[in-house]
Amino acid sequence: MIYFTHEKLSEHLYRIIDFTGVCCYLVVGNKKAYLLDTCNGIGNIKEYIEKITNLPISVILTHGHLDHMGGAALFDDIYMNHDDMVVFKNHGNMTFRIQDTKKHSPVEVKEEDFIPTYKGEIKDIKDGDIFDAGDIHIQMILVKGHTPGMMCPLIQEDRMIIFGDACGVGVLLFDEYSSTVSEYKKSLLHLKEFEDKYDYIFRNHGTFESSKELLDNVIGCCTLILEGKDDHIPVKFHDIELYSCHKQNENGHGRLDGKEGNILYAQDKAQ
Ligand SMILES: [Zn+2]
Ligand SMILES: [Zn+2]
Fold first, then answer.
1. How far is Cα of residue 126 from the mean position of the Cα atoms in its chain?
2. Which pLDDT belongs to residue 158?
3. Contact between 3 and 18 (Cβ < 8 Å)
4. Helix, strand or coil for residue 113?
5. Dist. CA 68 → ligand 2 center (Å)
6. How many A from CA of 60 to the centre of ligand 1?
7. b vs e for 45-66, b when ≥16 Cβ sit within 10 Å of the residue's Cβ?
8. In the prediction, which pLDDT does 154 show?
9. What is the whole-number distance in angstroms between the Cα of residue 158 and the centre of ligand 1?
């Protein structure tokens, strides 16, 4: 069974893709390596990335969702913004992890392949913190919205940023932990302060990459929703009733108007 594949994106950055189609990123400097998220925790991602680097590896979780923290227990130095601890604890329940992954995954997943949830210490990350891997540095930018502690890692010297689930083609503002649209818009305006520091935007799902127009388009979505001028199309995300800011195309993974950037929100977030 092949659980992982990877591709090299720059001198220091690798994308690791798990067999369900979720990816995470590996930054390899000349002193140290940082794994940005750990995918679903099915199969041994540690053994896999040890074939790419033999440097010491620390894990930075962008947020506490199960498709990002699932493999964390294979490592012993874990960082995450503590505002996401409540999300991590909720998603860390093994029954929930297995059932939810089965719902999301386009391929069959086996219960016995799951890595147990990480139970050790999680070190906090704050907005602006910089991780030093030697010849490459990672700056953490707080973009709360999708979750309360959501962070975007900026790979400074390579001028790349991981938007992750923070800003994308179908940002989910969907549960009790997600921000309102107005709070989320403030986060995006904070992210925009760094716009001249990167040339490439990467995400963890779908096409994994976006053009630089994405951020302005998602800020535009916030404005439309707050003014009550969005398309407001009812959509179901599993069993949750959400609204799509823009009409989606037939496969449901993009906008009908061909532009990139959309928000799927619960009605109580539209404020
Ligand atoms: Zn997420
Ligand atoms: Zn995700």
1. 17
2. 98
3. yes
4. helix
5. 6
6. 14
7. bbebbeeebeeebbbbbbbbbb
8. 98
9. 25
CA of 110 to the centre of ligand 2 (A): 20
**Can you tell me whether residue 105 is helix, strand or coil?**
coil
Residue 1: the pLDDT is 85
Is pLDDT at 166 greater than 90 in this prediction? yes
Q: How many domains does the chain have?
A: 1
Residue 240 CB: number of other CB atoms within 10 A?
12
Q: What CATH number is associated with residue 43?
A: 3.60.15.10
Helices then strands, each counted (H, E), the chain: 6, 16
Domain that holds residue 60: 4-269
Count CB atoms within 10 A of the CB of residue 104: 16
User: Please, which pLDDT band fits residue 74 given cuts at 50, 70 and 90?
Assistant: very high
Ligand 1 centroid–CA 146 distance in Å is 7
Alpha-carbon distance of 67 to 42, in angstroms, equals: 10
Q: Tell how far the Cα of 62 is from the centroid of ligand 1, in angstroms.
A: 9
Which ligand gives the minimal distance to the CA of 147? Answer: 1
Q: Is the pLDDT of residue 248 over 80?
A: yes
Taking the CB of residue 223, how many other CB atoms lie within 10 A of it? 13
How far is ligand 2, taken at its centre, from the CA of residue 204, in Å?
6
